[in-house]
Amino acid sequence: MEFYVISTILASVFIIPYALKTFFPYLWVDVQYVGVLMRILFKYVANRRRTPPFFALERFLERRAALSEKPFIVFGDEIYTYGETDKESNKIANALLSQPGYKPGFTAALFMGNEPSFLFTWLALAKLGSPVALLNYNIRSKSLLHCFNCCKAKVLIAAAELKEAVEDVLPSLREQGVTVLLMAKTCDTPGIENFSEKVEEALDTPPSLSLRSHVTLKSPAVYIYTSGTTGLPKAALVDQNRLLSALAVISTYGMTSKDVVYVNLPLYHTAGFVVGFFGCIENGSTMVLKRKFSASQFWDDCRKYNVTVVQYIGEVMRYLCCTPKRDNDRDHKVRLAIGNGVRAEVWKEFLGRFGDVQILEFYASTEGNIGFLNYAGKIGAVGRVHFLHQMLFPFLLVKYDTEQDEPMRDADGLCIEASKGETGLLVSKITDIAPFVGYALNEDQTERKKLRNVLKKGDLYFNTGDLMRIDKNNFIYFQDRVGDTFRWKGENVATTEVSDILSMSNCLQEANVYGVQVPGHEGRVGMAAATVKKDAQFDGGKLYEHVVSYLPSYARPRFIRLQSAVEVTGTFKQMKVKLVEQGFDPELIQDPLYVIDDCVRSYVPLTSDIYSSILSGRIKL
Ligand SMILES: *[C@@H]1O[C@H](CO)[C@@H](O)[C@H](O)[C@H]1NC(C)=O
Ligand SMILES: *[C@@H]1O[C@H](CO)[C@@H](O)[C@H](O)[C@H]1NC(C)=O
Ligand SMILES: *[C@@H]1O[C@H](CO)[C@@H](O)[C@H](O)[C@H]1NC(C)=O
After folding, report:
1. pLDDT bucket at 433, cuts 50 / 70 / 90
2. What is the pTM (predicted TM-score) of this model?
3. Sequence-ordered strand ranges (E) for 190-266
4. Which CATH class is domain 486-616?
5. Which residues belong to CATH 2.30.38.10 in the chain?
6. Is the CB of 308 under 6 A from ligand 2?
7. Transmembrane region positions (predicted)?
């Protein structure tokens, strides 16, 4: 009898785990995920319930209190501890308080590259209860004004090196009564104030808490710009509630106060600002801030600063894998890489070359209401579909018609769910816990991201614009963006925005912009199929000057294809799929083709020679 009991127990001990592993290979992973989700929810709810009210800024103040002497920001040879960072931001806050034209709570726009001042200024404004618009420092003239205006900012704070870009739009800003502050000691342009001196002279005592007593969970915290589906960039409103939920998610990424985090992505994007900046604050880590990503300096920096956590986007990983191999490739302390968009081949290559780094791939968007985390570390996937996740945040993939550029509908006008293994458009139900706040002052664009009548008449979903695939083991993979945006050099390019700009040029009538794939490049390279204005001649030089003055480098179309007419669909949407497939091979395309040439500052005819040089990588795009 005893023998049976013992052997049964032994058998269970050995067989059950084996059976589970065989028949439910991801059971353990899923159990862990439930734990992660519960921790996120618990954390979020606990933070929301705190009194006095708790916002993202309070997390920083907590860390400052506990880790005052600990380095927070390392920037080149400069080091700022948590305490010093706090004082620097107090000085900016106090200087702002004495600034005519500024009042606590006013929305301010920050136009600055990656540097410690960016973070000091954000913290200062948070202490004064001011929402901050994070302007992309690559934008100029019309785009800059548009971005500034779409969040109704009353103050512009700019880095010294961006003075010229500010001067460009100064007349309009002055007309609107905007206060323009330059982070420089001197400035002799009327209408732009030198702000650094004031900051240096200001006291470093904390501004009164009452100055931000108006802030609630619904108050805007930051505006982050996204190149969305159409038109100029849109300001996604990130409210305090959303920052709190981001903090809760980030707290499960496993960063600790011992970690040194390498932040090399722009702070004006969600990846740098939320994941990088708040990721460091959440657990009191040290941030090594880099002005710009550099593939050749990446590992040297990691060695120099003892970096343990790095951030990436797909392009970063690819560029790193493309650098010449070195003997010390594995000589570093990096244990974790957090980011999104790395392709399976690059992921494998990265691990093979740089050693055992945990890659934490996630999927999220600035304004979206759905996210995934590849907690299982499945190569190539962005995450895993889990019933609990789906219960909390109902989402599904629906069949998408890439020709018509819209979701397919059945006879009842409802969307059709994509089957397992099939690519579909990710849509996520808009609910109280998965809200979609939308874009500042842009009802139209906000409406466009909503999808109705998905499963039932009258239901309401957020349209991510991303095509995904779920495999039979429930891992979810990112496939592509739908028609009107593509990614290039880590930035989203809105095709309609580019085509609007092209059709404002002297010689082009209409332009259909899309992205084509080029071997060896992540993302897609911008191309435009355009028609020439009646009685006008195509002028590559003039078009080049026009494009350069209106579009940031990553959004400029590299190729132009001249056509006699732009093809449109039944619903007057431009046809892109066929053009994308046809690419830019001059041997196959009869239409005149041009390629951008930055040396001669013009669009020049695309010859077969140039074509093969691009394919072989001799010409860089
Ligand atoms: C800089 O600002 C201070 C006041 O903050 C002013 O007195 C000074 O003249 C300014 N200098 C220049 C060169 O603009
Ligand atoms: C990060 O900080 C949170 C508290 O904010 C804590 O619950 C969590 O355990 C920390 N994580 C690590 C890995 O230290
Ligand atoms: C990096 O770590 C090494 C060994 O642990 C130490 O000697 C060095 O001072 C550290 N460097 C920095 C910048 O912290």
Report:
1. confident
2. 0.81
3. 193-194, 220-226, 234-239, 260-263
4. alpha beta
5. 386-481
6. no
7. none
